[in-house]
Structure formats: C-alpha cells, structure tokens
Amino acid sequence: MSPHALYVTAAYAITAIVLAGLIGWILIDQRARKRELAELEAAGVRRRSDKAAKP
Predict the structure, then answer these.
(1) Which of 2, 25, 33, 37 is the most exposed place for a label (fewest CB within 10 A)?
(2) Quick check: 55 pLDDT over 80?
(3) pLDDT computed for residue 54 by the predictor
(4) For 4-53, what is each residue's pLDDT tens digit?
(5) Which contacts qualify for 8-14: CB closer than 8 Å, 24 or more apart?
(6) Which domain covers residue 16, as residue numbers?
(7) How far is it, in rounded angstroms, from Cα 18 to Cα 20?
(8) CA 30 and chain centroid, separation
(9) Is residue 15 in a domain?
(10) Residue 52 in domain
(11) How far is CA 14 from the centre of its chain?
C-alpha cells in the first residue's frame, strides 16, 4: 500500500469515526431531551406554543 493510499484510508477512517460519534451524541442527547420534556409535562408544565392549554 502506498503512503498516499494509507493517508487517504486513514482520513476516511477518522472521518467515519467522527461522524459516527456525532450521530451517537445527537441520538443520546435527543433521548435525554425527550425524557426531560416528559418529566416537565408530567409535572404540569406546558409549552408556550401549546394553544390548547390556555383557558
């Protein structure tokens, strides 16, 4: 394998690892935000944009 091919392969591998990490982080954070939102809604806190909650 030539040095150029090794460099390109390493660059693609690092990019794939970084993208997988970012996607994983987004999915984990999404679950945390949904859990927090469910806790707030269970406590009676409603969204300001929720028109149905207003009397």
Answers:
(1) 2
(2) no
(3) 55
(4) 999 999 999 999 999 999 999 999 999 999 999 999 999 988 777 777 65
(5) none
(6) 3-41
(7) 5
(8) 5
(9) yes
(10) no
(11) 19
Written as six digits, the tokens of 3 are 């040095």
Record the tokens describing residue 40, joined without a space. 């707030």
Cα–Cα nearest to 44, from 32, 35, 53: 53
Structural domain count of the chain: 1
Q: What is the pTM of this model?
A: 0.69
- 55 domain-assigned: no
Residue 34 lies in a domain: yes
Q: How many residues does the chain have?
A: 55
Angle in degrees, CA 14, 17, 23, rounded to 5:
140
pLDDT score recorded for residue 47: 76
